[in-house]
Amino acid sequence: MTGTTALPTTDDLRTRVRASLRRVGASIPEGSDFRARSPITGEDLFGLGAATAADAEDAVAAAREAFLTWRTTPAPRRGELVRRLGELLRDHQSDLADLITVEAGKIRSEALGEVQEMIDICDFAVGLSRQLYGRTIASERPGHRLAETWHPLGVVGVISAFNFPAAVWSWNTAVALACGDTVVWKPSELTPLISLACAGLLSRAARDTGAPRDVHRLLLGDRTVGERLVDDPRVALVSATGSTRMGREVGPRVAARFGRSLLELGGNNAAVVAPSADPDLAVQGIVFAAAGTAGQRCTTLRRLIVHRDIADTLVSRLTAAYTKLPIGDPFDENTLVGPLISAAALDGMQDALARVQAQGGEILAGGDRRLAEAAPRAAYVEPALVRVGEQTDVVRRETFAPILYVLTYETLEEAITLHNDVPQGLSSSIFTRDQQEAEFFLSAEGSDCGIANVNIGTSGAEIGGAFGGEKETGGGRESGSDAWRAYMRSATNTINYSGRLALAQNVSFL
Ligand code: UN1
């Protein structure tokens, strides 16, 4: 595998961060409670002050107070705030992308893409602010009308992960604001700087459009801050993105106080490659989905289920592509694979590789650490391609790193059984030019995931569709389509204009 040019120093990264934050108009809160760091060098950048329990209390109280005004602001006017945010994101796309690269290690093109996704959801939410439609329902009684009305829900607590440190916040926030909710955001501890920049731009948009200042509050801090949002009955909806382990705690705790949660948890996404697949298209789609973002998307392709007649050819093409992947500085435009987020992520990957080998798996390409001398604290690694005979416990688990397990199948039914035989259900795809196969994969008997694609990889969804998955992925839907309904409450109205009382179900009384 090729390496790219020398890595930037931690001082270079500090300079970049300062310049981006200055242009965005955000500053770093003084303190030393925790540290911003960069996976590019694995070193600390700045100390930061974390939110205290009193800050969290204050943020929720302020957001609740702001909600009382915001919910009465007409939705198209709420859309003006989101439109302004979208404009500021356009102006600062490059600054925000820099911060994402510094903190999450994303290559430039993917970091810019993440900000593009934010701009796109803002456009979507502006339109939505004029389309919060309810239905009129035929009443069984004469002179009656049934209607469904949608109202703002309240304070939304957003808990987000390091790997999409800005876009996932924007999916939730743009839609929640258009819906008349206010937001308290607890980002990942690993990405405080991009969070400061996003929150700073939204504050500016609020000032520019005359929206209440506290429509949005940011809380930097550890999991105890997130737990406050989870347990606070004033937080009407907790939208949490992260591991299934985290969701297993958040879901029941929010439910125990009859709050709502929207969970977007782990995936173990697979692609079926049928004999009729276009091989060039399949190889490109697979390599981006499996090795892109260094395997750190929740939509990353983790399992490949290939028809046995084409398995050897496809595997040798993939092996060739894997050995050519440029790994290194994500700011270098030739790099395709940046660093893993932490040494712990690298340990997790190496542990999974050792265990799957002990279970009979064969590493076909990659898996070795890179740049250990240049950046001893960073975690650069070659994406790994591993052939496995069966779906062992290691394969059925999500390892948040670039490992692609290759399995083979004979019949499509067998492929789909393998495909669905994992606890997670986020994203899936089939590469085929056979329409019957494609439609079967998309049918009720096919993929059991929230996202099912044809001739495209598992990652890189557009914001227009609803995003989320089934089973241990948590069942939530964010972003486009009618995901907005999770951010509002509906009321069913029965309006009697007949002048006499008629009971439903033909009940007579009095
Ligand atoms: C995530 O990894 O949490 O579909 C979100 C995708 C992106 C979003 C990923 N649009 O890969």
Fold and architecture overview:
By secondary structure, this protein is an alpha/beta fold. The chain folds into two domains: 273 residues, Aldehyde Dehydrogenase, Chain A, domain 1; 197 residues, Aldehyde Dehydrogenase, Chain A, domain 2 (3-Layer(aba) Sandwich), CATH 3.40.309. 39% of the residues lie in helices and 20% in strands. The protein has 15 helices and 23 strands. The strands form seven sheets. The chain has a seven-stranded mixed β-sheet with strand order 12-15-16-11-10-18-19, with helices on both faces. Strands 7-6-5-8-9 form a five-stranded parallel β-sheet, sandwiched between helices. Strands 3-4-23 form a three-stranded antiparallel β-sheet, with no helix packed on it. Strand 10, helix 10 and strand 11 form a beta-alpha-beta unit. Helix 1 packs antiparallel against helix 4 and helix 3 crosses helix 7. It starts with 9 loop residues before the first helix and ends in a 14-residue tail after the last strand. The site of 2-aminohexanedioic acid has 11 residues, from loops.
